[in-house]
What we know:
By secondary structure, the chain is α+β, with helices and mostly antiparallel strands. Among the domains are: 469-526 and 538-588, no CATH class; 609-633 and 762-829, no CATH class; 638-752, Jelly Rolls (Sandwich), CATH 2.60.120. Helix content is 47%, strand content 18%. The chain contains 28 helices and 27 strands. Strands 12, 13, 14, 15, 16, 17, 18 and 19 form an 8-stranded antiparallel sheet that branches. A 5-stranded antiparallel sheet has the order 20-21-27-23-24, with no helix packed on it. A 4-stranded mixed sheet has the order 3-6-8-7. Strand 16 (693-697) and strand 17 form a beta hairpin.
Amino acid sequence: MVNKKLMMLVAASLVLAVLAHGFFLQAWTEGRYMVGHNDGLQQMVTFKKLLYHQYTSGNFFYNYGFGLGGGTYSQLSFYFSTSIVFLLSTGVTFLLEWLGVVSAVDIVYWAESAVFISILRLAAILVLTTLVFRYMKIPWLPAFLGSAVYGLSVIYFRHATYWEFFADAMLWLPFLVLGVEKIIREGRAGWFIFAVAVTMIDNFYFAYINLIFIGVYFLFRLFHRLDQQEVSVVEQVRLFVTAGLIGAGISAVSFVPAVYSFLNNYRPDYRFPVGIVDFSDNILFTSRIIVLPAIFLLLLCLIPLYKRPHFRLFASLSVLFVLLHFSPLAASAFNGFSAPQYRWEYLLSFTVGGVVAVGLQYLGEVSKTSIMIASLLVISLYLSVLVIDQHLSFFSLPGLTVLIFMVVIVLMTACVVWIGKRSCFYMLYGASLVFLLVFSNAIQYVISEMTGVRSVSQEFLHSEKYNGKEQRELLAEIYERDSNPFYRIDWRVGYWNNTPIVQNFNGMSVYSSILNKELLFFYLYDLQVDMGRESVSRYSTLGSRANLYSLLQGKYMMRKKEDTAKVPYGFEKVAATENYVMYENTNLLPFVRTTDTVFSKEALREANVLEKEHAMLEGVVVEDGSFSEKPTEAPNLIDNTSMKTTGAEYEHGYLKVKDKEGGIDMIVEDFDGEAGDYYLRFHLESLAERQGFAVKVNGYRTTRKHNQSIYKTYIDDLVIRVPKSEKISIRVPEGEYLLKEFALYEEDYTVLDKAKRHADDGAQVKWEGNNLVIQYDNPGGEKWMVLPIPYERGWQVKVNGEEQKMEKVNYAFLGFPIEPGNNKIQLMYLPPFFKASMAVTFVSTLLALLLVRRKANNKHHLINYVRIYH
């Protein structure tokens, strides 16, 4: 009987999940996908593609093609590297590929499969939540409807479409509740250990949110006794803490590297005040985050239900989370006390589902008077909110639709109480499910039509705006002529920073919420490299600075034919199509560089960025402050210039642009006309509160975010490289700006030319997965080896079998001492603290087995004792 009911539950959940995705299934038949246009295409499907090919090739930890190179196990832990749903998807996909059912596992495959993965995930959420409610002694139909309220919520479809892995957190929440209930009712900790472990393995960010919830749930549960056989409070607390620590220990192999990556990321502090309350969101009609169903509000107003402790538990939690929804401060707390982010409201959806499940169970006990009062309260509430919300009309589609369904639910609930027939219950359940289905598909329509999801289609994924045929053909031409695995191509489509992942090449850009802070500091502070776009979660290109391209394996650059302003010195055209040109760097330096000239980062503290580049070309910059070498100087030429305004006024550092576009022209006196570049440095801030803007310097264009943006870097010192010219023009849109602290440096590339002439390309390099082997003969007795691999914790190096300390050199890259003569160098990357965290996982797993087994034995002995006694 149990198996039959379970099979019926699985079937019903699958059917409901399919119907709930009706809109996106219809879109799928038309070649449109359940993927967000921004992060969905830039991160979700691209990181799945990257990790799938990495994992199925046996490489689990590091990828040279992730930006300038990075530990994907830790840095992509926020996304999919340890996501259980993704790992299961990978296993199924690998099997399908092996069987020949799937021909290519690419971006299109992951976009096409998104809706089906979502259906299966939602079906699993419905099954698990229903079983948890059943464990709490709620009948099947109310339990199933309560799970539907949880699963078919606004936030599920919002998360599953825009940030797919967000929705995975909804899977583990019921497990955690089950784990707590098992501890309280049976004194058994196994499920809670499992739930904590799987939550923390899957995603450290949502583990934080889920564990806050389960702590609150446990505290509320202490004051709501739901079963006569519950264990003592002291034993509950002991098991809760013990099991939680063991579960956390099991997750260490995933959780510790993930948290390290989060701490090793860099985000500027959130600089705006966080409000305590904000009641602007309409959670009855139009909220983009949570819309409370009418059945929930009706049940919440039925006073007799509060006699039931189950109902009081879920009702009190729901009221708490509704209040927290209107608090930006709470949203900040759930986001690690950073910018307010409303990602946690699936917790509210769960407690609302609990209210519905429990309330329907006891609806037959409610008096007619109570239902009349509750109905009047709910109708009054909806009408009041409709009147108060000035952005919503009574006759608008959201207004009428929600009101109609509210009236239907109120009438059917009243029928249940007044008539009391089983058929009335079934009609109420049916109407509630229909409402949830209509609402979930309406959510998908809004998501698709209002936020650009509709444009994510098979046609777009093969267009020149994302992954065009002409672009791929030009890249393929380079692959055929150059088989070196280490060179990089500077190319991205528009602002799609993860184009290198999409188009399968080693690039120079990446977009991810978690990145290596050493690289971010390199771009933002140490070398002040302009990325073409201000961002806290991206890095891209090298600001057209030839020295950096030569140092970091930037061998090729692909640009549209008309876009020549950003082509660096020394790059020559080598291939072209109708609309695109490929340039090659004629001054590329070897992947492995050696030197005995050492500069100190401390000694270069006051050096300008061009002098820092010279130091990296002439030797190596180390963290050790005992070296005092000076690089080739680059004097400031700003005193040899004069300024005049165009379409603007400039006085005491303040620029007021009156025309549509205007600014300053800087005239270089005694201009020599020789080849080379200028590096122009200046400080620029917009004085407007919300005016993002573009800055143009002699055709070079970069953009800056407005002053209220939560993604602003607040780094307003810019360094722009432009080809040498007698006139340097700075142009910004109409508005008022702070423009000051000018400096001008000239680069004639003699240092780069010298470095190229003296470069030794004799090293033999073999890189497989996270292991790198270098054979190098060092007859000149060079002291240091430098690699264009970003420094991050986890790299280990042995030189001729002896372990050496891995150093951070050139501000953000790997370097280490070498020996005279032959050097066999072995580098290996493991995620930070991987071995130690693996040991903790192993020990914690043993402790979990011992604890669960002891509890099982104790229960077995107790059963035997009872049998003997009787």
